[in-house]
Amino acid sequence: MKPARSKLEELWRLSDAENEIQRQLFNADGQPLPTIDDNVNSSFSNVGSISPLNKSPWSEHESSSAIDEEENRLFASSSSPKTNLVCSLVRKEGHIYSLAASGDLLYTGSDSKNIRVWKNQKEFSGFKSNSGLVKSIILSNDKIFTGHQDGKIRIWKVSEKNQNLFKRIGTLPTLKAYLKSSMNPNNYVEIRRKRSVWIKHLDSISSLALSEDGTLLYSASWDRSFKVWRVGDFKCLESIQAHDDAVNSIVVGFNGLVFSGSADGKVKVWRREKQATKKGFKTKHSLMKTLATKDCAITSLAINVESMQVYSGSSDGLVNFWAGSELQHGEVLRGHKLAVLCLAAAGKLVFSGSADMTICVWRRVVEAGGEHVCLAMLTGHAGPVKCLAVEEEEKEASAGSERRWVLYSGSLDRSVKVWKVPEHAKPNNTQIRNAHNNESV
Predict the structure, then answer these.
(1) With pLDDT > 90 as the criterion, what percentage of the chain qualifies?
(2) Cα of 315 vs its chain's centroid, Å
(3) Which parts pass through the membrane (predicted)?
C-alpha cells in the first residue's frame, strides 16, 4: 500500500502534466473521480482542449461558458474606477503555466513548449524549446531563464540586430560541466531510484528565482532539491536536498534569506552566506527555521521585500503569511474554495490565484496592524489560474499620486488576462459575494 504522501504527489503531478490527462484519477477514499465529457466547450478553447486540472481532485466544479462570458463582459465594461479588466490575450496553442513581465513586455510559457512575447498587449515575438513544457520564466537584465518539465534550465537572449529574434545561448547544466562532473564517481547522487550527477535536476523544474543583486539563480524541482547557479558563468555552486517531497516554489527575500515551499507541507527558511574564493565566490545555505508544517501541500510562495512579509498558498485554499525580521505568523487569508496555485505581491497588495478559477486581491492595512482585507474577487477565467505577474503602472498613466498595478493572470483555459488594480480601491463586496455564490452553485 502506497503512503498518503506519495498519492498526493502523484495527483499533483497528474494535474500539472498535459500528457497524463488520460490516466485514471482517484479521490482520497480510493474511488474514481467523475470523468468530464470531452465535448464540453470552453470560452477560450475548442473541443478536446480540456484543462488537466479539470480532472484533478482539487477542481471538482462545473464550468458554464455562458456564465463566464457574462461575468467577463460585465466586469470589463464596468464604469467602476476600482479594478478593471483591460483585455484577454488568447493563442490557442497550450495551457498557460508561467508568466514574466518587464515594462511593456510580457512573456508567457505553455505546455506547447513555446514562449510567446507580447508588447503592449499585442503579440510581438516568440521562441520555442525543443522539449519540456515551460513551467517557470524569470528575467535577468538581457537574459531570459526558462525552467522546464524535463529538468533543464534554458537561457535565451535577444538578438542585437533584431529585437524580434531570441536565441538560446545555453542550457543548465552546461554540457561541459555535466561531462566534467560525470568523470568523478563522488559527484553522483540517487533520488527516487534515479542516479545522476548532483548538478543536474532529476525531475521537473517547478520554480525559478533570482537573488537580490541578480548574481545568483535558484531553481526548485520536484526532485526535492533546489540548486544555486552563478549567473555570470552559469556554474552550479550548490545543491540542497531541501524537503521530503517535491519543492513547488522558491523565492528570495530580505536579509539574505531564501524560502522554499514543498508538497511535504513545509515552508523552510534558508540563510545564505557568500564566501570569497580565488575564482570568485561560493555560497553556503543553512536551514534557519521551518515556518509551516501542514497536512496539505504548499503550492506557492510570494514575498514582499518592502514590508518584509512572506506568503504561502496551499492546496486547502488558504494563504498564510509571516512578517518582520522574526517572521512572526500573521492571520490566515480565506478567500478560495480550492487550491491556491499562485501568488504575487506588490506594494500593499497581494494576489492569489486558485484552481477555483478566481483571483483574490488583498490589501495590507497598516493602520489595522498589518491585517489584510479582500478588495476584489476577479472572475472571468474558464479554468484554474496557474500563474500571476504584476508590474507597476507608469506614473503618467496613473491617476494622481496613487500607485496602480498591472496584473497578468495565466490560466489553464489557454488565456492571459490583463487587469488594472489601484492600490487604495474600496472593497467590492458585491463582486466578492457573487463570486462565492457562483462557486457554490
Answers:
(1) 51
(2) 14
(3) none
R_g of the chain computed on alpha carbons: 21
Residue 211 grid coordinates:
537573488
DSSP line for 240-307: EE--SS-EEEEEE-STTEEEEEETTSEEEEEEEEEEEETTEEEEEEEEEEEEEE-SS-EEEEEEETTT
CA distances in angstroms from 218 to 200, 261, 344, listed in the order given: 13, 13, 18
Integer Cα distance of 2 and 203 in angstroms? 20
Helix, coil or strand: residue 367: helix
Q: Which domain holds residue 262?
A: 82-394+402-422
Position 19 in a domain: no
Mapped onto helix, strand or coil, the DSSP state of residue 330 is: strand
Residue 59 pLDDT class (50, 70, 90 cuts)? very low
What residues contact 102, with CB distance under 8 A and at least 6 apart? Answer: 139, 391
User: Rounded mean pLDDT of 393-414?
Assistant: 80
Residue 441 lies in a domain: no
3-state secondary structure of 154: strand
**Burial (CB count within 10 angstroms: exposed 0-12, middle 13-18, buried 19+), residue 133:** buried
Q: Using CA atoms, how far apart are residues 385 and 341, in angstroms rounded to an integer?
A: 7
Helix axes 65-76, 429-439, angle to 10 degrees: 170
Contact between residue 68 and residue 406 where contact means Cβ atoms under 8 Å apart: no
Closest CA relative to residue 166, chosen from 148, 147, 144, 149: 144
Q: Select the more confidently predicted residue: 66 or 361.
A: 361
Report yes or no on 427 lying in a domain: no
CA distances from 265 to 9, 149, 260, 261, 430 (A): 11, 22, 11, 7, 34
Question: Is 50 exceeded by the pLDDT of residue 80?
Answer: no
Mean pLDDT of 257-282: 88
Pull the grid cell for residue 303: 514575498
Q: Is residue 234 part of a domain?
A: yes
How high does pLDDT run on average in the chain? 79
Per the structure, the count of domains in the chain is 1
Helix/strand/coil percentages in the chain, nearest 5: 15, 50, 40
CATH assignment of the domain containing 270: 2.130.10.10
What global pTM score does this model have? Answer: 0.79
- Give the type of residue at 38: D
More confident of the two residues 275 and 217: 217
Mean pLDDT for the stretch of residues 64-79:
40
Coil/strand/helix, residue 88: strand
